[in-house]
Design goal:
Layout lengths: L5 H5 L5 E5 L2 E4 H17 L7 E5 L4 H11 L4 E4 L6 H11 L3 E4 L1 H13 L6 E4 L9 E2 H7 L12 E2 L1 E3 L7 E4 L9 H13 L8 E4 L6 H12 L3 E4 L5 H10 L4 E3 L2 H8 L3 H6 L7 E5 L5 H11 L3 E7 L3 E6 L1 H6 L5 E3 L4 E5 L12 E6 L7 E2 L3 H7 E3 L2 E10 L4 E7 L4 E3 L2 E3 L1 H8 L5 E11 L3 E10 L7 H12 L8 E4 L13 H8 L21 H10 L2 E4 L3 E6 L2 E6 L3 E4 L2 H8 L5 E2 L13 H8 L7 H12 L4 H5 L2 H15 L5 E2 H6 L1 H11 L6 H12 L11 H24 L5 H7 L9 H14 L2 H16 L1 H8 L5 H12 L4 E6 L3 E3 L2 E3 L4 E5 H4 L34 H15 L6 E3 L4 E2 L8 E3 L1 E4 L1
Parallel strand pairs: 1-12, 3-4, 3-5, 4-8, 5-6, 6-7, 11-12, 11-13, 13-14, 14-15, 27-28, 32-38
Antiparallel strand pairs: 1-2, 9-10, 10-20, 15-16, 16-17, 17-23, 18-19, 19-22, 21-22, 22-23, 24-25, 26-27, 29-32, 30-31, 33-35, 34-42, 35-38, 36-37, 39-42, 40-41
Helix pairs in contact: 2-3, 2-6, 4-5, 10-12, 23-25, 23-34, 26-27, 27-28, 27-29, 30-32, 32-34
The protein binds protoporphyrin IX containing FE.
């Protein structure tokens, strides 16, 4: 049997070891499963000194893998399941993991991560019985393995990655478990945990936060190693936490202050139902807890709260029970052996009680930690061997109790005075309008920094926060500490442990008071795409909450001025890529794929009839049905007619007369092609032009001017036209696309009338404006970059290569919208269920992390992995067609291109969606 579980199995093994949401297992079965895992890992060549990474949720298998590694000399590298594939790839590579174990819901992302990772992560396992995305199903493999006690067990370890506050995450080697050490060392550790930290033996522990965080992991794993039953919840829900504590007679749990706040905010009748009689201790630490919140918890749950101060790097270094805390309110406790707390002033001298300075932990040499692959970072956390800091500022009182006032790098220096955010946050959190709060310093010309509060508000918070929060703060804080401004954010960037990513916030709010182009406002784009602003965002706030401007909409009931919900603007290439490929988290259907929020349920329903605004099986069904029409082969079938249209158009404009490069040229080709494609008589193409302008140019004063009813009328008119057309082709099919579309079958089903009309309308818009703006934008780019134009004209760069660079350069569709359908994360920024997320292709396409010299038009750029056509399940169906149209037109234009001049100012669409010109006076010669 696994050495560390021997005692409990020897006692008969019948008691419950683990209860997760799938059921309960006893000690004997757990032991056998761990044996099989050990055998499987050995079979795959893993052994002492190797590393194994996991992207697993809170579940039984996670602890099986952990225990197996702890008995095989393997180091487990837990990975936060919210991370994106590049982030996971980084950890897999940096840790040198040879194996990756995942659960099915993370297999896709993890599979992409493995493909991106460097190193030799070759053993890929997924829990359950079904193989997924290159991962082998583990259950059939375990069944083949021996359940007998493995020979030669040797101790393994864990290595957790901390997000830190700057730079890439680093793996922490903290010496809690040591690879190859005798198991008696683990026994010493568990004894210490029991005696000093009060981790219970043979009781019942609750894991109700992500196990990949050190405190959750160690309190639950050590409890299990001490023979306590571990009850595991996949995710936190305040009401069910209360229920499970009572039902499962939980004696010990680890919670974080944000969980306390959510528990305290439950309705009184729910709170009153809770008994909590079984609870012996509830640890919390790793993040500040407002004294008021803590007092209310103690009033409610009794003196069971045990606070510690610690970090992944050094474990828990102080401790205080509730009673001691009530005598020393606000403290995080007294040092526990073998730790000693010392406060050092700026000059490095030890500070007396009451004096504030940086908090250091001193231990015997050798009982410290290091960062994997980061000796410099290890050095900078240490004063000398055995003396290190977690980066906090605080003081000790006469009794040796430690009080934290903030993190060294969080301290605000305003007008030369030090201000500690934690103190202000502890006040603000008590106001009923405040759900959560972070206080940061923002740049100030006069004071260097000034105090700003970033607030997550409660549902009934007033509009004017300053009016209520300012007097509230002044009651208990000196004037220089009261925030000068309050900023509402839907969700503070907290990790599941409660740790606040102030670095993320500081970046987002560094620009308070500085005028920046508003990327949410359609009018901003009348002056062109604000590329400098996108560059700044990529650099400093790649996933930033972006409030929406007030926009006026008209209808028969009059004008209304409305503000959208605000959204997360995603501007880096990797993040746009990753969000687009996680449709199970970022839905196109929930609120549609367009930035403006649907105004009514009817509008949402209408939007959802469009392919772009569908998800899952419905999307797959319709997409497969229509995709056949857009294959490269079918599109090549249109080559001759496109070439004919292009030739005639070029002939018309190259006679030396002035023309409008938008209306007379760029708009014409896609319209003519669409007429062929959609079964329109060419003379009806003005209808297409009008509909498409009205729908896409909704915000532009010249086209849609925000008139809601006109928008709906256009929709209805176009629908009616399509319906007539569809019926006609159902009765008398020809060989055009429409006939193929209305009669095509997939899984024995045809498109319904409504589905057909919706798709037809999407094509009217998608195939029209996009290509128009690509053409006009390309002409403008070629005129403005004569050297590049000449490379094209001389034949130095192939037309096809140039076309893709022009598509990147123009990026006709600047963004699409998604809606988060569960709480998740984008590059470390938590995103809540229901939040709007907008992916900016226009920014991704200029990301220097992917494109060398991205702001230079380089017609020979190859490869050119631009995202102008989107990525993931909604990748543009018209991409081949658009490329063909552009290439054909360029080829026809080549002999004349050097003579093209712009003869007047270009006017642009007021749209935050398409990047387009409205008019572009031009002449050849
Ligand atoms: C340069 C020209 C074009 C650009 C830049 C462009 C861009 C895009 C983008 C970014 C998407 C992804 C939408 C999302 O992820 O939510 C998309 C989807 C789509 N495009 Fe295009 N497009 C172009 C031309 C065309 C043409 C010519 C057609 C057809 C005639 C077309 C038909 C579609 C359709 C049907 C979809 C929806 C696919 C789905 O939801 O599964 N596009 N396009």
């Amino acid at each position: 049997m696994p050495a560390l579980l021997n005692d409990y199995i020897a006692e008969g093994g019948a008691g419950t070891a683990i209860v997760d949401e799938a059921g309960a297992v006893g000690w004997r079965l757990l032991g056998e499963r761990v044996n099989r895992w050990i055998a499987l890992l050995r079979d795959r060549g893993l052994g002492e000194g190797d590393r194994l990474a996991c992207v697993l949720g809170n579940r039984r298998e996670t602890f099986e893998v952990l225990l197996a590694c702890l008995h095989s000399g393997i180091t487990v590298v837990p990975i936060n399941w919210h991370l994106t594939d590049p982030e996971i790839a980084y950890i897999v590579s940096d840790s040198g993991s040879k194996a990756l174990v995942v659960e099915p819901s993370y297999a896709d992302t993890a599979g992409r991560a493995v493909a991106r990772s460097t190193g030799e992560c070759t053993t890929l396992l997924v829990t359950g019985s079904m193989a997924e995305s290159g991962f082998e199903a583990v259950e059939p493999l375990l069944a083949l393995m021996s359940a007998a006690e493995p020979e030669g067990q040797t101790c393994g370890a864990t290595m957790l990655y901390t997000s830190g506050t700057t730079g890439a995450p680093k793996g922490v080697v903290n010496g809690l478990f040591v690879v190859g050490a005798p198991f008696s060392r683990v026994a010493k550790l568990t004894r210490y945990a029991h005696v000093v930290l009060d981790v219970p033996s043979r009781e019942r522990c609750l894991l109700d936060g992500p196990w990949y965080h050190s405190s959750q992991l160690f309190f639950s794993l050590l409890g299990l190693l001490l023979g306590s039953t571990l009850v595991i919840r996949r995710s936190f829900d305040p009401e069910s936490t209360l229920d499970i504590i009572d039902r499962e007679r939980i004696t010990a749990a680890h919670l974080v202050p944000t969980q306390f706040i959510r528990l305290l905010r439950l309705p009184a009748e729910v709170r009153e139902r809770f008994s909590g009689a079984s609870l012996g201790r509830v640890w919390h630490g790793g993040g500040p807890c407002s004294p008021d919140v803590k007092r209310r918890m103690i009033d409610w749950w009794g003196p069971v709260l045990t606070e510690y101060y610690g970090a992944t790097e050094g474990g828990a270094v102080t401790l205080t029970g509730s009673r001691d805390w009530l005598a020393h309110p606000g403290s995080v406790g007294k040092a526990v052996p073998p730790n000693e707390i010392v406060i050092l002033g700026e000059d490095g001298t030890p500070q007396p009680p009451g004096a504030t300075g940086q908090v250091f932990v001193r231990r015997a040499k050798g009982q410290s930690f290091s960062y994997h692959n980061a000796p410099e970072k290890t050095r900078s956390a240490h004063l000398e061997p055995g003396t290190f800091t977690f980066g906090d500022v605080g003081h000790l009182d006469e009794d040796g109790f430690l009080y934290l006032t903030g993190r060294a790098q969080d301290m605000i220096v305003s007008g030369g005075v030090n201000v500690y955010p934690a103190e202000i946050e502890a006040v603000l959190i008590n106001h009923p309008a405040v759900q959560d709060v972070a206080v940061i310093g923002v740049p100030d010309d006069e004071f260097g920094e000034r105090v700003a509060a970033v607030v997550e508000v409660t549902a009934d918070a007033p509009e004017d926060l300053f009016a209520v929060l300012d007097p509230f703060c002044r009651k208990s804080l000196a004037g220089f500490k009261t925030p000068r401004s309050y900023h509402v954010i839907p969700r503070l960037p907290r990790e599941a442990t409660g740790k606040l990513r102030k670095d993320v916030l500081r970046k987002s709010f560094a620009a308070i008071g500085i005028e920046r182009p508003d990327i949410a406002h359609p009018a901003t784009f009348a002056d062109g795409v604000p590329h400098a602003e996108f560059a700044r965002r990529r650099e400093t706030e790649p996933v930033a909450w972006t409030p929406e401007p007030l926009l006026t909409r008209h209808s028969s009931a009059g004008s209304t001025t409305q503000r959208g919900s605000g959204y997360w603007a995603v501007t880096r290439y990797d993040d746009v890529y990753s969000v687009s490929r996680r449709p199970e988290e970022f839905s196109s259907a929930a609120k549609g794929a367009f930035l403006p929020d649907p105004r009514t349920p009817g509008d949402l329903k209408q939007t959802r009839q469009l392919l772009v605004s569908m998800d899952g099986p419905e999307h797959v069904r319709i997409r497969r049905l229509v995709a056949t029409v857009f294959t490269p082969k079918s599109v090549r079938g249109l080559s001759d007619s496109i070439a004919g249209h292009a030739r005639r158009l070029v002939e018309k404009v190259t006679d030396g007369a002035e023309f409008d490069a938008v209306a007379d040229f760029a708009a014409e080709l896609p319209l003519l092609v669409l007429c062929d494609l959609l079964g329109f008589p060419p003379e009806d193409r003005h209808l297409l032009y009008r509909w498409s302008n009205a729908l896409v140019g909704f915000d532009d004063p010249e086209f849609g001017s925000g008139d809601v009813e006109a928008y709906r009328r256009t929709f209805a008119e176009a629908f009616a036209y399509a319906m007539k057309l569809g019926l006609n082709r159902r009765e008398t099919p020809t060989d055009d696309l429409i006939s193929r579309l209305v009669n095509a079958e997939f899984d024995g089903k045809r498109l319904s009338d409504r589905e057909f009309c919706s798709f037809w309308l999407l094509l009217v818009v998608a195939g029209n404006e996009t290509t128009r703006h690509l053409i006009s934008g390309s002409l403008e780019a070629l005129v403005n970059n004569p050297a590049e134009r000449d490379r094209l004209v001389s034949g130095e760069v192939p037309v096809a290569t140039a076309v893709d660079e022009l598509i990147r350069w123009v990026t006709p569709i600047m963004q699409f919208r998604r809606t988060a359908v569960r709480d998740t994360e984008i590059a470390g920024q938590p995103v809540a269920e229901g939040d709007k997320v907008v992916v900016y292709y226009t920014s991704a396409n200029r990301d220097p992390a992917v494109f060398t010299d991205p702001d230079r038009l380089d017609l020979g750029r190859d490869p050119n992995p631009h995202l102008s056509f989107g990525i993931g399940p909604h990748f543009c169906l018209g991409a081949h067609l658009a490329r063909l149209e552009m290439a054909t037109l360029l080829t026809e234009l080549l002999p004349h291109l050097s003579r093209l001049r712009l003869t007047g100012p270009v006017t642009r669409l007021e749209s935050n969606f398409v990047n387009g010109a409205k008019s572009m006076p031009a002449r050849f010669g």
